[in-house]
Amino acid sequence: MLDRRFIRENPQAVKAAVRVKGIDLDVDELLSLDQASRELQRELDEAQTRRKSFAREFARADEAARERLRAEHDEQDEHLQKVRAELSATNERLQSLLLLTPTIPWEGTPVGPDDSANVTIKTWGEPPVFDFEPKDHVELLENRGWAEFARARKVAGERAYALTGDIVLLERAMLSYALDYLIERGSAVISVPALVREDPLIGNGQFPAHREETYAITADDLYLAGTAEVALVGLHSGEILDARALPIRYAGISPCFRREAGGAGRDVRGLIRVHQFEKVEQFVICAADDAESDAWHFEILGAAEHLLQGLGLHYEVVECSTGDMGAGKYRMNDINTWFPSLGRFRETHSCSSLHDWQARRANLRYRDTDGTVRFAYTLNNTAIATPRLLAALVENHQTAEQTVRVPEALRPYLGGRAEL
């Protein structure tokens, strides 16, 4: 969400952001509602001031004057009720549009309608070379008795899975590996609720535009979060933090749930696109300073790259286009990891700077050293998300004997085992 004054003073910049990000928003309507809101608020303030003066006038007036004042008072009360109703309706509509306003993207962001306009800015490693016919992760897991896909679908429908045996331990090892590294780098580890109220989803930016992608528990007015970021934004909503407490850096772990629309095919087979997964999420709250935010962006992006390099996985980093980055993002870099069975990269990480877009929605502020209260900046990035990254690891490190080589970084979590 953008500041109303900023929108008034920079309407063309906001319109340009709306256009390149593909947001369905009428900025002129928003500006008109903003003006109407301010005029109605002035009218309300003046009417309330006039109403307060009635008491003093009434005390000094004679009986004849009091009759006139009573009539004026009744008329003023009716006017106040009308103005309040108009202001409430106007502000409600205005707020619905403000929630759709996008952050102005970084000037170096590629302009395009979707991920087809993303630009690769870095690659690391090389695709594995096999001297045998490699298997995709589904066949490999089933052959090893490490997954129950058909039986899981009996329980939970399409895109369900159940892991068993050593592959469960490997998944646990990946998550612990990520947590330990982030703790070492100064993050506070935290497990957060997967069941959340509506307000954190608004604060995070999932609602209202992406409501249909979220599972709803209607009987309890709760929702299943698609990332720990939702709860991490919500933890400090409505607070005024001390500037000396910043930056706050979390390593959040939680189960995650997404409805994940899309058709069938090899690129959604098995563990690649599922409804339930686990993730370690990086989340940063920092001061409202562009340079500091940029530094944190590359810090958490570098952390994700370090983890992938420790897993020995070939990946690319892309600069996401305006149409792919979402409304709230100032800058977004995806990391796509190589899948041998697909012969291409698939997204496994998404690093985003949002400036104060989330903080304004969640009313997340801090008191600066000079006493000024400001909206904080927020950033997030995946550290490890399974089981998609687990599928990549299995495919890239498989052997001709259908075992999986364990990257050295994970061996301490598996009793030193080099192969499963």
What does the model show?
The strands form 3 sheets. The chain has an 8-stranded mixed β-sheet. It has a 3-stranded antiparallel β-sheet with strand order 3-5-4. Strands 6-12-13 form a 3-stranded mixed β-sheet, with no helix packed on it. The protein has 420 residues and is α+β, with helices and mostly antiparallel strands. It has 2 domains: 4-98, Serine-tRNA synthetase, tRNA binding domain (Helix Hairpins, Orthogonal Bundle); 115-414, Bira Bifunctional Protein, Domain 2 (BirA Bifunctional Protein, domain 2). The chain has 12 helices and 14 strands.
Helix/strand layout:
Layout: H1 4-9, H2 11-21, H3 27-60, H4 63-98, E1 119-124, H5 137-143, H6 149-156, H7 166-184, E2 188-191, E3 195-196, H8 198-204, E4 215-217, E5 222-224, H9 228-235, E6 240-242, E7 248-257, E8 276-286, H10 290-310, E9 315-319, E10 331-339, E11 344-353, H11 357-362, E12 365-367, E13 373-375, E14 377-386, H12 388-396
Parallel strand pairs: 2-7, 6-12
Antiparallel strand pairs: 1-9, 3-5, 4-5, 7-8, 8-14, 9-10, 10-11, 11-14, 12-13
